[in-house]
Amino acid sequence: RSCLTASAGAELSAKLCRRHDINEGAAQPRRAAVFNPYTEFKEFSRRQIKDMERMFRLYDSGRDGYIDLMELKLMMEKLGAPQTHLGLKNMIKEVDEDFDGKLSFREFLLIFHKAAAGELEEDSGLLTLAKLSEIDVSIEGVKGAKNFFEAKAQALSSASKFEAEIKAEQDERKREEEERKHRRAAFRELKSAFTQ
Question: What start-end ranges are recorded for coiled-coil regions in this protein (predicted)?
Answer without folding.
Answer: 152-186
